[in-house]
Amino acid sequence: MSWVTENWQLKLLAGVLSFGLFVAVAFQQNPLVQATIKNVPVSYENPPGDVELIGAPGRQDVRVVGLQSAVNGVTATNVQAKVDLARVRPGLQVVTANIKVLAPNVTAYQDHVNFSITVEDRITKQIPVDARVSPAPGWQVTKSTVTVTDPANQTSGAVSVSAPRSFFQGISAYVTFAPVSANTTVPNLPIHFERAGKEVQLPTNAVPLPTADAVTASLTIEASKPKQTINVPVVETPTGTPASGYRITAITIAPLFIDVSGSADDLSKVDSVTLPPIAVDGATQTITRAVRVSTLPANTSSSVAQVTVTITIQKNPAVPSPSPSG
To answer: What is the spatial distance between Cα 240 and Cα 278, in angstroms, rounded to a whole number?
Structure first.
């Protein structure tokens, strides 16, 4: 066995060099590398049931290290990022996500990631849903009713929202529809939220996600054409002719102008009201009659039911005979 022990130092050195060369060649073909795994899901464990985590990321980028062949096979599904919420309290605080790589021969570059979140009380409130409608020209909305149907098929005029307490500060909800030109019921109108005149959405960066028990509502609208009033003259046109030698010298109507009410469309062509004619056949003296205002255009009305008409009839003036010529 002398050949084993003979020059053993040189043989040991040769063995070490051979192993080092082997390792160098192996790592050259499959080197140690780092990589960033994008969008690793962050899970939140032991959350208190009455709080919201605002600014809590749903996904996190994680750096890993390992042999290239192993790292190449790592995806977001092979990495865990877990946050224990057992000790969180309301307010701004830093929490830790513990990182674990499930793929073999790969480890996390850091075993944890810290980030800041805000913890708020989670509350549930009923927010009344208003109707915002715009009538078409010539129309007015007399009544509007919003109906919200929840998952239990119960109806009300409000939407139930569970969200961080701060979400409800100055918040309002509404549906909108235009133009209104008839009685109608409009289903499935989106429910909008508004604060200080600006539309807002339910927060999407909170854990658990805020919820609303309905996202649409129906709107029942009652509408009519509003009445307008105009002041127009009253016209009387007698029929027939007075007795021979008599004539009509004046027609007086009191009141001469009356108010007529109706929609803008119905009043658009009304410029006067013509009374039923009074017959003056064979008359030799003034006629005074109370005449009903019964000839108003369709769909219009007047607060004046009758007027007094006076038709003045006088004898024709005598015409002097011509003097005989001298």
So the answer is: 9
